[in-house]
Amino acid sequence: MEYSQAQTDTYLSSIKASMPKIIEENKLSNSSFLNNHLIHWAEPLNLLELLVSECINIGSKYSLERKPDKEPSYATHIGLLVRLHGKACAIANEILFLLKNGFPDAAQARWRSLHEINVTLYFIAKHGIPCSERFLAHGIIDSYKLMKSHKNYEHRLQEKGPSQKESEEIQNLYNETIKKYGADFKK
Predict the structure, then answer these.
(1) Which helix (H) or strand (E) holds 155?
(2) Among 88, 94, 89, which residue's Cα sits nearest to residue 107?
(3) Which of 8, 22, 110, 166 is the most interior residue, by most CB within 10 Å?
(4) Rounded to the nearest 10 degrees, how much is the dihedral formed by the CA atoms of 67, 73, 77, 78?
(5) Which residues contact 120 (CB under 8 A, 6 or more apart)?
(6) Spacing of C-alpha 90 from chain mean position
(7) 61-120, pLDDT tens digit by residue?
(8) In 10 A of CB 77, how many CB atoms?
(9) Is 71 left (phi over 0), alpha (psi -120 to 50) or beta?
């Protein structure tokens, strides 16, 4: 055991001594890779960046110029669509960052998330206010389940769960949601 500890200590000392050189070599290698990568993929990456930028700008402009809606359920519906659009833009930006930095597999994984959000957005937009209300109500079900799980594993998580008041509020919202949509809604 002493031998392996001595070997470990020797190895760690050696690594620490050569750390600046290793890091500098890695930076040069990464820099060279990124330069070549960006030169090779400049045109499609620039087009993607333009598309993402325009999506963000259009969404921002719409949000800023949006007039208050007289019908609360319509305002909630549009608000949900705007939030989903914002989430899609954030993920598109992540994809752009990953592609620019040479991580195509990670970008593809985020692209699947982007697709999922866009399908959800399209479905909710197509089916209107009742669909928005159900989508948001299901968020209450998810919050309730998360709260219960957190309460059950507080000791493992080493983090306090919601307060008694917060738990009661979530419980009340949950009960109202089940009352409105039925017991099958909690599945």
Answers:
(1) helix 154-157
(2) 94
(3) 110
(4) 0
(5) 84, 135
(6) 8
(7) 999 998 887 888 999 999 999 999 999 999 999 999 999 999 999 999 999 999 999 999
(8) 22
(9) beta
Two tokens, residue 114 = 């982007």
The conformational region for residue 128 under phi > 0 = left, psi -120 to 50 = alpha, else beta, is: left
How many Cα atoms occupy the beta-carbon half-sphere of 47 within 13 Å? 3
Instruction: For residue 119, give Cα distances in angstroms to 19, 70, 84, 85, 163.
Output: 47, 28, 10, 11, 36
Whole-number Å distance between alpha carbons of 149 and 101: 37
**pLDDT tens readout for residues 42-64:** 999 999 999 999 999 999 999 99
Q: How far apart are CA 84 and CA 80, in angstroms?
A: 6
DSSP state of 139: H
